[in-house]
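*** Fold description ***
***
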Amino acid sequence: MVVFGGSVSSAASDVLLLRIGHVVTEEGGEHQGSLKFAELLEKKSEGKIKLQIFPNGQVGQNREMVESLQAGALDMALPALPGLGGFTTATKMFDLLYLFDNREQAEKVLDGPIGQEVAASVESSGIKIISWWSQGFREMTANKEVHKPEDLKGLKIRVMENPLHIEAWNMLGASAIPMAFSEVLTSLQQGVLDAQENPYQNIVHSGFHTVQKYIMETNHLYGPLPVVYSKVNWEKLTPEQQKIILEAAEETKVWQRNKQEEINAGLKKQVEETGDCTIIVLTSEEKAAFRKQLAPLYKKYAPELNGYVERIYQEIGREVDF
């Protein structure tokens, strides 16, 4: 793991060098978005702001990156949103499985007042969300077909180190095992795990589909990808630098979301063509059965989420079903 200080400004060149980290490969949407972000930062600042990108967990896994942000040792990171679960409760409602049915619903919420309020509320944790990019929907892989909650019974599934995810998968009947992303492939190969869940890009780029028989398109969780800035480093920036960074991040957002969908669709097609494993698309009725099983979880957590779950339901036109 690379360890370093925060942003660097050279008096001689008057160039601000920012550093951003993520845990996926250079082919993923996080990296492609970061490249676009770097291009826009340099263009908008006339070369005075440059971005150095650290992929593949070079600056740590999700938890380590967030800790580095809090300490000011890293400027920005693109952690999977559930990775923030151990640092703040402000994003907890987005950890509820089957909250969104499609991308349009998610973007409507994230780009509206709710997304803005959530971004503002994490600042007490020493971090700042400056934009909402996307990982797309998370799917499940396993060595057996899964169509209903009963099919998950006893299945050892890797989940992120997020309390709500652990509780949700256990409630569905699986045996949830929190584990760092970097350990998943070996654990699947060795039989420590029976299953895992990730977006298509992580499944294919990490080779999970080569050691699992089935990809279930469960679409169980839309992955908002927060662009997270170190609060202590943000406050060291000039207002002009902050303005440029915010503009570049938001402009990148539109491009990155489309790019992410393109990447996931392309990888799905690749799996279909190679036949490395079988893709099973769950029906709306099958997905509804999983959501119904999770109703007690919604009922348990909704009261402590400041009305956000009910507001999201209202925003996307869904009746309260818990």
